[in-house]
Design brief:
By secondary structure, the chain is α/β, with parallel strands linked by helices. It is 41% helix and 13% strand. Helix 9 packs antiparallel against helix 12 and helix 10 packs across helix 11. This is Amidase.
């Protein structure tokens, strides 16, 4: 599905163009990248060019420029996961498993990218690492937690980005910045060597400019077959879950989303209005018990011997402290409730296997708007509301940019658990129809 770099430019030329963009102060590359591997990337790009010239390419990812979120281990560097409190950790002894697979496939890793602290925020700001602006409007947030990943792709600093998603961290910045973000089913891609926010909910995945490139990275990391070719939308049926996931949607988002549905109808898709509010009621019952991210991050920090949380952003610290006080019995109850949620949603999707909804209910807010605690938490919860459904119910989900006036708007397609390859093929068809 992806065009190899040899078809249009050498890997070295592609890399040099990316490095020029990273060095451009207007693109804020110094904030977007926490580490830049220019020399290593040049060597990798030159090696790729030699392989392609000799007809020995390692595959379709060979020579592609890839950025890596700062929670993935890179041998010889300390993994800070966006937090100053982890600066004293020992450097990683080896690459994260996903990073090693990228290198083995010939990817040119240009650097590690900005993220929110511990990946524990959807907004995209970080008091320890600075606040890079949205590539469509630098005064606005890029979304998180894979903030730098999305910016690197949209601003041409990388062709594909490797990020992670616990409640929307791939899809939220993709939607707010105008990219494609794919969240796979749990366990599809290797998370070994990625700093965990919530081992229960964490997945890793791509942000890219196209579904084809997202599917390419997914195929390489899953060590499986490539995603199927694009499935035309004509004759396919999609469920739009009207109800609480549409409450409070900004007019600009609603207009762009409904116009996107009209394009899909014109391409022959069957759009069916329905509801998953019964399943969301069951999710609300789980939420009343506790929050996986807060509980599991508190446990991870305790395992690292970090008991003093003074160096953590107060917005994040309060949630970690609350999670650390959760009773063990509540955590067990949460795991059991989530297993039931997964079964219920899988049964629900036997009738309509793909849901369509706005990725997030708002366009990117101004950075100045979210610096105050109350506004930050309000925006953070709003951004997570729709995307976290896929994590809690363990559904593959992909956010696609839709035509919109002004700031970017994302449309999400969610599929059945384990149906990742099928969803990627459907997403390619959706992408083609949305582009007209």
């Amino acid at each position: 599905m992806s065009v190899p770099p040899a078809a249009h430019a050498s890997a070295s030329d592609q890399l040099e163009a990316a490095l020029v963009r990273i060095a451009d102060p207007q693109r804020q590359g110094a904030l977007v990248f926490t580490e830049l591997y220019a020399d290593e990337a040049r060597a990798a790009a030159a090696a790729s060019d030699r392989r392609l010239a000799a007809g020995r390419a390692l595959g379709p990812l060979d020579g592609r420029i890839v950025s890596v979120k700062s929670l993935f281990d890179v041998a010889g560097d300390t993994t800070m996961a966006g937090s100053a409190i982890l600066r004293g950790r020992s450097p990683a002894g080896r690459d994260a498993r996903a990073v090693a697979r990228l290198r083995a496939a010939g990817a040119v890793i240009v650097g590690r990218t900005h993220m929110t602290e511990f990946a524990f925020s959807a907004v995209g700001i970080n008091p320890h690492c600075g606040n890079p602006g949205n590539p469509r409007d630098r005064s606005r947030v890029p979304g998180g937690s894979s903030s730098g990943a999305a910016i690197s792709v949209v601003d041409g600093m990388a062709e594909i980005a490797l990020g992670s998603d616990t409640g929307g961290s791939l899809r939220i910045p993709a939607a707010l910045s105008g990219a494609v973000g794919f969240k796979p089913s749990t366990g599809r891609l290797p998370a070994e060597g990625a700093f965990p926010l919530s081992p229960t909910l964490d997945v890793i995945g791509p942000i890219a400019s196209t579904v084809a490139d997202a599917a390419l990275l997914d195929a390489v990391l899953s060590d499986g077959d490539p995603a199927p070719a694009s499935f035309p939308v004509a004759g396919q049926s999609f469920l739009v879950p009207r109800g609480r996931l549409f409450d409070g949607v900004e007019p600009a988002v609603a207009t762009a989303f409904e116009a996107a549905l009209d394009r899909l109808r014109a391409a022959g898709a069957h759009i069916v209005d329905g509801s998953i509010d019964a399943e969301l009621d069951a999710l609300a019952e789980l939420d009343r018990i506790g929050v996986f991210t807060a509980i599991e991050l508190a446990a991870t920090l305790a395992d690292l011997g970090i008991t003093a949380l003074d160096g953590i952003d107060p917005k994040t610290r309060a949630r970690i402290e609350a999670g650390g006080k959760a009773p063990a019995a509540d955590y067990v109850r949460m795991q059991r409730r989530r297993a039931d949620l997964i079964r219920r949603m899988d049964d629900r999707l036997t009738r309509h296997p793909v849901l369509l909804l706005p990725t997030v209910p708002l366009t990117a807010p101004a950075i100045a708007e979210v610096l105050e605690d109350a506004s930050f938490h309000r925006v953070n919860m709003a951004l997570l509301r729709n995307t976290r459904v896929a994590n809690l119910f363990d559904l593959p989900a992909i956010s696609l940019p839709v035509p919109a006036e002004g700031l970017p708007v994302g449309l999400t397609a969610m599929g059945r658990r384990g149906g990742d390859r099928s969803l990627l093929g459907i997403a390619a068809g959706l992408e083609a129809a949305l582009k007209g």
